[in-house]
Amino acid sequence: MSTLTLKNIVKEFTSGSGASASTTQVIKGVDLEVKDQEFVVFVGPSGCGKSTLMRMIAGLENATSGDILIDGKRMNDIGPAERGLAMVFQSYALYPHMTVGENMGFSLKLAGVSKEERAEKVNAAAEVLQLGPLLDRKPKALSGGQRQRVAIGRAIVRNPSIFLFDEPLSNLDAALRVQMRIELARLHAELKATMIYVTHDQVEAMTMADKIVVLQGGVVEQVGSPMELYHHPRNRFVAGFIGSPKMNFLDITVTGVAGEGVTVRLPDGSERLIPVVSQTEDGASVIVGDSLTLGVRPEHLMLDAQGPFSGQVQVIERLGGVTSLYLATPDGSGDAPIGGLKSDEQSDSGWILMADGDVNSRVGDSIRYGFDTERAHLFTREGLALQNLNRHPLTSLTRQDNSLSSASAAQEARA
Amino acid sequence: MRTRASGRTVGGLRTLSLQAPAVSLLLMWMLVPLVMTLWFSFQRYNLMMPSVSGFAGVDNYYYLLTDPSLWTAMGNTLLLVGWVLVATVVGGTLLAVLLQQEFFGRGVARLFVIAPFFIMPTVSALVWKNMMMHPVNGILAWVAGLFGLPAIDWFASLPLTSIVIIVTWQWLPFAVLILLTAIQSLDDDQVEAARMDGAGPVAIFFYITLPHLKRAISVVVMIEMIFLLTIFAEIFVTTSGGPGLASTNLAYLIYIRALLDFDVGGASAGGVIAIILANIVAFFLVRTVAKNLEN
Ligand SMILES: Nc1ncnc2c1ncn2[C@@H]1O[C@H](COP(=O)(O)OP(=O)(O)OP(=O)(O)O)[C@@H](O)[C@H]1O
Ligand SMILES: [Mg+2]
Hints:
The structure holds two protein chains of two kinds. Chain A is of the alpha+beta class.
């Protein structure tokens, strides 16, 4: 049993000294509940405070205010070693002058564990990670993936209540990353441990997490299961951050508000009913004439000769299975987001349409396209979402439901 | 004619002519004094007795090696080098760790620690002799007086120790400088990982910091050793090698022979022995250091 609770955590850094000192608030009141055996992923743009938050949980950094509870016990004033956590660093942080075995057994040695017991535990961890033949090597003689495994092994040996990972896979190549991702998921199931994981990688976040925490500027924007964040983002930031390529945005006006949804007028003059509530979560109501932002994911746009949008194809990226068409914003306000990834500055300019791999459009073609109104999103000027009337059926899905063992268990239960 | 593609034209007439000025300068600089020293060491050559001259065979060496003062001087040399090395490495490591911490006035403190390095040996020896260790006017005597203790006549009763203290004071900044730079290259993540593993400050020092400093320490030892074998000014200014031979090292013994006894032949023989000694030390040292630097 190991749970983690953060209560109104604030972190301020003071730079300079004396009269010229200035403080910056980096974490601005974070509340979070992590359940036993949960896999929680922190995502957010660079500099939003993910590492800082994790280091406070680890005890490497003091919280300016707020409470950190592990298994219900307040841990603010307890040192990093006594919290019973283990952290895997992005840089691996292996001790270069110790062998792999010594690296993994270091914490036990400091704790005064006997040599035999130490060897036993190190071997057990090495077994799990297939590090057996490497135990006598120095870290320098290991590949990146092996080093990463040693770093994880060092954490396992301590038998921590919670594992902390700060971008552990970002230094590995793509193939190795996929392999380690699967290995970590397996490890999580095997060790039945609570894990907190920081990443920049969408795929890692979506595939590994039971719960994703989206941070921005030291504030938690939304907490939820991957499917919940994808289908029901709380605000425009989360909508844009989760999903790749990014969601397309367009300014539109409201022409009707009814029980079954909000009707909006599109640039070509046509109107569409989007099935969303007419109130934001803070109680503000949408009325006719309001200007809102329509959000549609690239995968929910489709080529359609009768569609409401039209535009010229500016760039085409063919991946075989799918084809991305880069278009100007339908109201003509922005050019295609060349380069594939829309950076933050130009996040609103240009649209991307994900079409079937077999479309034969060419650069310069004028196309008409439409969108799936059921899956469209509406955001107020303040960026808050109008929630869809129908909850997506997969939002409560946990990661365990995606793995084979639980599927077969469910089948057995049904039989 | 070797081809350019091989990348080596060493030995070609043209390259040789280009290297010639540098090589001949080096030869002159190094070989001429060496050969002259060797030559004199086999000569009867005493400035007080210009009439006695000619080939002496190994007499100079015989007299030197059977002279107990040579062995005293060698012992003193090793003691001096050894103690200064121990003091500067241990003190330097501790000071470097200390100066690495965040505290108010760290910049100024660093400057003060480094400062003695910029003072020339003669001056620092004079300062120590007349202001610090002087049995009447010295600060150390005054401090001893505060505690009601008798003043120590440093250079009379603890001559070699006094020299060790002075030289340590001069060389400590060098060790601190090198070790501080090395400590700054220690990965923060490693220290934090160790903290998570349950290491306190002492464990971090012995298990993380010290192994990280191993290379830098061997560099400090090597460089200091080269300079410490030839300490002269400090002895000359303070004890003049005395009382008796209590603080005479090899360099000072050669000086005594050559310029106080005017025995150029004997002094040259001493010089040759010093060269051999330095080479033996350098051989072992360079080998261990090179091995250290490799991994
Ligand atoms: N010791 C420090 N002193 C002052 N400011 C700091 C310190 N450490 C971090 N910060 C600031 O806190 C903010 C959050 O940093 P943090 O390292 O947590 O970001 P992050 O979300 O992990 O980013 P990345 O994804 O790039 O790793 C940054 O703006 C950073 O400049
Ligand atoms: Mg970070």
